[in-house]
Amino acid sequence: xxxTIALAGNPNCGKTTMFNALxxxxxxxxxxxxxxVEKKEGRLKGHKDVSIMDLPGIYSLSPYTxxxxxxxxxxxHESPDVILNLVDASNIERNLYxxxxxxxxxxxxxxxxxxxxxxxxxxxxxxxxxxxxSLGCPVVETSAVRGEGCIAAxxxxxxxxxxxxxxxxxxxxxxxxxxxxxxxxxxxxxxxPQESARWFAIKLFERDEKVMEGFTLSADxxxxxxxxxxxCEETMDDDSEGIITGERYEYISKLVGHCVRKGKxxxxxxx
Length: 271
Ligand code: BGO
Fold this sequence. Notes:
With 271 residues, this protein is α/β, with parallel strands linked by helices. It has 2 domains: 3-163, 3-Layer(aba) Sandwich (Rossmann fold), CATH 3.40.50; 175-237, Helix Hairpins. The chain contains 11 helices and 9 strands. It has a 7-stranded mixed beta sheet, sandwiched between helices. Helix 3 links the parallel strand 5 (82-88) and strand 6 (109-114). Helix 3 packs across helix 11 (240-259), helix 5 packs antiparallel against helix 11 (240-259) and helix 7 (175-188) runs antiparallel to helix 10 (219-236). The longest helix is centred in the C-terminal third of the chain and has 20 residues, at 240-259. It is globular and about 55 Å long. The structure holds 3'-O-(N-methylanthraniloyl)guanosine-5'-diphosphate (BGO).
């Protein structure tokens, strides 16, 4: 079975370095259809049947930049077999914001916890087993610049894809949001793919216009959807997008508090 691994991560997390370590000179560069965003694809070294698709560096799966739209359209419509999510471990809190969204897509996900050399140099400790259990996906430590752990992370991703085990997101929002998501999920269950139903429900809750445009919903369904969102917004006294963003950050902050122990220097690659 041939496997396609989608490489996803924030800008500057080390994705180019990782992509080169994984593919060597075996890569093809072009543009994503219709846009001037670079598209890179290559074969995993030593594995003729595993290809790596490098996605644009993004902070979120929102619809606000060309890169985000290209990346999410690829993940939703081209069905890669697995996502290899590169996380800059020295900026873990910021990077996990994208991770929480990738986990909701219903695809298998492996996290490559990159820049581990920086983390170790700073004297920080990350409990990767706890992080993996908390997020619901495997975590592999890497240092792309040293070539450490890269192939192992990609091989883990290929193995997970072959096993067919999708990520099971462990994060839930507060009761009021979950009630709205459940109502929205029921309203659109016949038109959204089952495996990515949670991601779609969240995007519809956020009134993501690009997602909304992708469906032909009756006026009655649209009204019921809007009223489910409004009830939650009134309860929470915030707009729906702000509610989701706020809860994601709160969740990530707690998660990092449980899994990361800071050393003395507190430096990251962005310092
Ligand atoms: C420069 N560890 C460390 N320490 N650095 C890493 C690692 C790692 O595991 N992985 C990548 N880097 P990209 P995106 C640089 O270019 O792959 C470094 O945007 C410099 N350049 O070497 O480009 C990598 O594709 C001058 O650093 O990331 C690169 O995701 C001084 O992280 C940077 C210091 O990697 C971004 C670093 C002129």
